[in-house]
From TrEMBL:
Protein's name in the database: DEP domain-containing protein
Domain of life (superkingdom): Eukaryota
Natural source organism: Rhynchospora pubera
Domain DEP: 316-390
GO BP: intracellular signal transduction
Region span, Disordered: 48-89
Compositional bias ranges of the Basic and acidic residues kind: 76-89
InterPro entries: DEP_dom (IPR000591), DUF547 (IPR006869), Glutaredoxin (IPR002109), Thioredoxin-like_sf (IPR036249), WH-like_DNA-bd_sf (IPR036388), WH_DNA-bd_sf (IPR036390)
């Protein structure tokens, strides 16, 4: 049984296993005479060690690690050569009269503490015990009491030598014992009695706001953050209270403290806690900034933005002769002809036929309707078939579609992209690690940011993507891809180990009247309509109108700006239209710095991410071109090694790292 110690000073004594079991017991006494070849052993509980009382306020000895496993951060122990579950055999040992009777440790025998000569005692003996020796139980007890004093004294000396300013857990290694001393936080309960409320206004991607947030988390101060990018309706309140829209702005109850400069001044002078208690030591008043209310939208503002064509669409939807038709050897469902729509407009809207045809073209341009094969513009023709957007057969795959089209006036895709980025950055600041390699998808799923993101992407249904410049489109699709991955993980789960089609192909958005999956965005748009790995078909046909959205030249750096939601992918990040090129280059440098490349100089081998195997043609025609491309984004150490290998004329081998598809959570 392994002793485990827990005390309020966060000192953890970890158990150590030895080859003969959980505790190694020396045998200091000489063996018995030759006629006695067996070892009388006793299955007993070894008295547990304890920490010196002066070093802890409360010490609790656990009988088994399972009794308090939740109270310990981690438990490590050296591997034992013998399995924890041993096989035992039962033997009967008769103790001769002339031998001294061993004393069992207290608590071993319930009726008597001695063993008489007449008694037969059944003993469990390990089958691995094949060395004959005698055991003096009293000596064993003294040995462990002495060892307890030695270990406790050693731990006490090491703890007393620790500096009070040490940060994080400190490990103390003694022979066969490992102790972790975890320094407590700075007054973790100092603000438990605080009656007031600390709140601050912020924006997504604001460095000063990040500094305020980090400081509050460091001192474990409860706070309320009001992100005006997530709650734009609170921005006017910020201006009314402070006279400016600059952030961060900190409030202690209803009293305005100031921004980061004031906070740093109080922090450096050591007066922050005193000011905090004086200004927020009383109960929160009604004049203090309110906690953001989750789950509510401004419906009146939404109604004011209804598209002016909605009235005509509302008239046509129930009156169109919608039916299934057989065209080009295919069954086309829920469609109508261009002539049918013109007739309906003439009859129910009281317009001439020429004007009705113009209305039909406008409805198609605004993506209320689309051609069944998405080939041509609207025509007053009985042979050309169209359908309403909500009747698209793939509507169940469109995760930004809620059984009906978004009837609001289409927003600019640039505006939607900016709002999308602000919401996603706010999620990462709240629910991801600082390096963005670990994301808490469970908390994102129930957050207000994610709920508002779900409402925002509905505006993508009828946007006009042609209004974006090439650089803006690059930024837009990079950010949309990373946002869709988060949405897909929350909605359908992480990519499967074998069939990843549901994740990368079946999870789709309807954008500007056209379906886009993760694979479509990556291979069709960002990679300029190149085949995905292990595929023989390009994403877009030669007549697909989405070809107009892809860049003229594919930029290989896009591979380091896309996160697939797994641990071997680059860190999740979002880009700005003005700085997307610079930010992509930095993303590549970070990827290689974090292990995207390793160089074994002695073996003349370069270990690259498997991304370079799947998309090798994007980086160069041969391995030398690929390595020369990589060389531009390495740090000085790796660049020096790779340059030497490339220039000395010797052969270079490229090996590809294993790809970890587990979720980056």
């Amino acid at each position: 049984m392994s002793p485990l110690f827990l005390c309020e000073s966060n000192i953890f004594l970890r158990p150590c296993l030895f080859p003969m079991g959980e505790v190694a017991v020396p045998h200091p006494h000489p063996p018995l005479p030759d006629q006695f070849n067996s070892i009388p052993t006793v299955d007993s509980t070894i008295p547990s060690l304890s920490l010196p009382e002066e070093n802890t306020t409360e010490t609790e000895t656990m009988k088994h690690p399972k009794d308090s496993i939740s109270a310990v951060d981690s438990i490590e122990s050296p591997k034992s050569d013998v399995s924890s579950e041993k096989s035992y055999k039962t033997e009967t040992v008769i103790l001769p009269e002339h031998l001294p009777k061993p004393e069992a440790p207290p608590g071993l025998l319930s009726k008597s503490n001695s063993i008489s000569h007449e008694e037969y005692h059944t003993i469990k003996r390990s089958t691995s015990a094949n060395v004959a020796s005698s055991v003096d139980m009293a000596s064993i007890g003294r040995f462990f009491r002495d060892q307890s004093d030695v270990v406790s004294a050693a731990i006490a000396r090491r703890i007393s030598s620790l500096k009070e300013t040490s940060n994080g857990p400190t490990e103390i290694h003694l022979p066969d014992v490992k102790v972790i001393v975890k320094a407590p936080g700075k007054n973790p309960s100092a603000f438990s009695s605080l009656k007031g409320r600390v709140s601050f206004f912020s924006r997504s991607g604001c460095r000063d706001c990040t500094a305020v947030r980090s400081f509050f988390r460091e001192i474990e101060l409860p706070y309320v953050e009001i992100n005006v990018d997530v709650f734009p309706e609170r921005e006017q309140e910020l201006v009314d209270r402070t006279g400016t829209n600059q952030v961060p702005q900190i409030f202690l109850n209803e009293k305005h403290l100031g921004g980061l400069v004031v906070l740093n001044s109080l922090r450096n002078s050591g007066e922050f806690e005193n000011v905090l208690k004086s200004m927020a030591g009383t109960k929160v008043s009604d004049d203090a900034p309110m906690v953001p209310v989750y789950g509510f939208d401004h419906e009146e503002a939404e109604k004011e933005n209804l598209d002016e064509m909605v009235a005509i669409v509302a008239v046509l939807r129930p009156r169109m002769p919608i039916q299934d038709r057989f065209v080009r050897m295919k069954l086309v469902r829920n469609c109508f002809s261009g002539a049918d729509m013109v007739d309906a407009i003439v009859q129910h809207v009281n317009l001439g036929r020429e004007k009705a045809a113009e209305i039909g073209k406008e409805l198609l341009r605004r993506h209320f309707i689309h051609h069944v094969f998405r080939e041509i513009d609207f025509e007053d023709d009985a042979q050309q078939l169209y359908r309403f957007l909500e009747h698209d057969p793939g509507v169940l795959k469109y995760f930004n579609f809620r059984m009906s089209t978004n009837d609001n006036k289409p927003k600019s895709p640039a505006v939607i992209g900016q709002l999308l980025t602000k919401l996603m950055v706010a999620m990462l600041e709240s629910y991801a690690s600082d390096d963005r390699h670990h994301v808490d998808y469970a908390r994102i799923a129930v957050s207000e940011e994610f709920r508002r993101y779900g409402n925002l992407v509905r505006d993508l249904q009828r946007v006009d993507m042609a209004t974006l410049s090439e650089t803006e489109r690059l930024c837009f699709f990079l950010n949309l891809y990373n946002a869709m991955v988060v949405h897909a993980v929350v909605t359908i789960g992480q990519p499967g180990l074998i069939d990843r089609r549901a994740f990368f192909t079946d999870f789709q958005y309807i954008i500007g009247g056209y379906p886009y999956s993760l694979s479509t965005i990556k291979n069709g748009i960002l990679r300029s309509n190149r085949r995905q790995p292990y595929s023989f078909v390009k994403p877009f046909s030669s007549t697909d109108i989405r070809l107009e959205l892809m860049p003229k030249k594919m930029n290989p750096l896009i591979h380091f700006g896309l996160c697939n939601g797994n641990r071997s992918s680059p860190a999740v990040r979002f880009f700005t239209p003005d700085g997307v090129e610079v930010e992509l280059r930095q993303a590549a440098r970070d990827f290689f710095k974090d292990g995207g490349i390793n160089i074994d100089f002695t073996k003349r081998t370069v270990y690259l991410s498997r991304i370079f195997k799947w998309y090798s043609a994007d980086f160069g025609q041969d391995k030398l071109e690929v390595l020369n491309w990589v060389l531009n984004y390495l740090d000085s150490t790796k660049a020096g090694l790779l340059s030497h290998l490339l220039n000395d004329g010797g052969a270079i081998s490229i090996s590809y790292q294993s790809f970890d598809w587990s979720l980056n959570c």
